[in-house]
Design brief:
Elements lengths: L1 H34 L16 H10 L1 H30 L3 H10 L1 H4 L2 H12 L3 H4 L2 H24 L2 H12 L4 H12 L1 H17 L2 H6 L7 H11 L2 H33 L2
Helix pairs in contact: 1-14, 2-14, 3-8, 3-11, 8-11, 9-10, 11-14, 13-14
C-alpha cells in the first residue's frame, strides 16, 4: 500500500520532468524546421510560408540522400560480416590477448573522429581511386561503428545456455560452421538486429569523421547539412534539417518496428 501511494505521488513529478526534458529537446528542432518553411526568417511567420527552400535543398543536395542511405546500409552489412564472428571469438576467449584486442577495438570510439580520419588519410589517402570514392568513407564508418556491433553481440554470445547448446551440437557431430550458422547466430539474432539499428543510426548521422574523409562528389547528409548552414541562407539550412528528418525518421521507425517484431517472436 505504501509503495503504491508513493508511486502515485511521484508520478506527477516524473511526468512534469519528462515534459520539460521533451520540450527543451524538441523545441529547438521544431524552430529550426519552421525556419525552413517561412519566406523570410528575419520576419518570421508573418512573411508567409513557402516550400521554395525545400525545393532548392532537394535540387542542390538531393544526391546526398541516396548516398547516405546506401552508405549506412553497406556499413551495417560490413559490421555484421566482421563483427558477429569477432564477437563470438571474444566471448569464447579468456586470454589476455583477446582482452587487449577488445580494448584496441574500442579506441575509435574514444579517439575523436577527426583523429581517426586523419590516420586513414595518411595511411590510404595516396590511393586516388579509393580516396575519391564512397568506399573510403565506408572504411571510416566501419572502423567507428564496429565496436558497437561487437559489444552488443558479444554480450549475447556470453549467455551460459548458448555454451550448452554449442557443446550439445558439437557432441552430435555438427561442424563449426553448422553450429555457428545453425545454432548460435539464430540464438543471438535479436542482438544482431539491435546492433544493426545502432550501426545504421550512427552511420547516417556521423559528421566529424565523414567531414574529413569526404570529397565534393562524396557528400553525405550531415556534411551537406553543415555546408548548407555555412554557405547558404538560414532558411535553406533549416529546410535541409526538415529534409533530413523526413528521410531518416521513417527509416529509423521502420527499423525499430522490425527490431521489436523480431524480439517479440524470437526472444530477447
Amino acid at each position: 500500500m505504501t509503495t503504491a501511494r508513493s508511486g502515485t505521488s511521484r508520478s506527477p513529478v516524473l511526468a512534469t520532468l519528462t515534459g520539460l526534458v521533451a520540450f527543451f529537446t524538441l523545441a529547438p528542432m521544431l524552430l529550426s524546421v519552421l525556419a525552413g518553411l517561412v519566406s523570410n526568417y528575419g520576419r518570421g511567420w508573418r512573411s508567409g510560408f513557402t516550400l521554395r527552400w525545400l525545393v532548392e535543398v532537394w535540387d542542390s543536395y538531393g544526391s546526398t540522400v541516396t548516398g547516405s542511405l546506401l552508405l549506412a546500409a553497406t556499413c551495417v552489412l560490413c559490421t555484421v560480416l566482421l563483427g558477429v564472428p569477432c564477437a563470438w571469438a571474444l566471448a569464447r576467449s579468456r586470454t589476455r590477448a583477446a582482452r587487449l584486442f577488445e580494448e584496441l577495438l574500442t579506441l575509435p570510439v574514444a579517439v575523436p573522429g577527426l583523429a581517426t580520419a586523419l590516420a586513414l588519410i595518411l595511411a590510404y589517402g595516396q590511393v586516388q581511386g579509393f580516396r575519391q570514392s564512397y568506399a573510403f568513407i565506408l572504411v571510416g564508418h566501419v572502423v567507428f561503428t564496429l565496436p558497437f556491433m561487437v559489444r552488443t553481440v558479444a554480450s549475447a554470445f556470453q549467455r551460459r545456455e548458448l555454451v550448452a547448446l554449442d557443446e550439445a551440437a558439437r557432441t552430435l557431430g555438427a561442424s563449426f560452421v553448422q553450429r555457428f550458422l545453425g545454432v548460435l547466430v539464430p540464438a543471438v539474432f535479436p542482438a544482431i538486429v539491435a546492433g544493426c539499428l545502432m550501426v545504421f543510426t550512427l552511420s547516417v548521422g556521423e559528421f566529424n569523421l565523414t567531414w574529413m574523409l569526404h570529397t565534393p562528389l562524396t557528400r553525405t547528409l550531415p556534411v551537406g547539412l553543415a555546408d548548407s548552414y555555412a554557405s547558404a541562407r538560414i532558411e535553406i539550412g533549416s529546410a535541409y534539417t526538415l529534409v533530413f528528418f523526413l528521410v531518416i525518421l521513417p527509416v529509423l521507425w521502420g527499423l525499430q518496428a522490425a527490431a521489436d517484431f523480431i524480439r517479440k517472436h524470437h526472444g530477447t
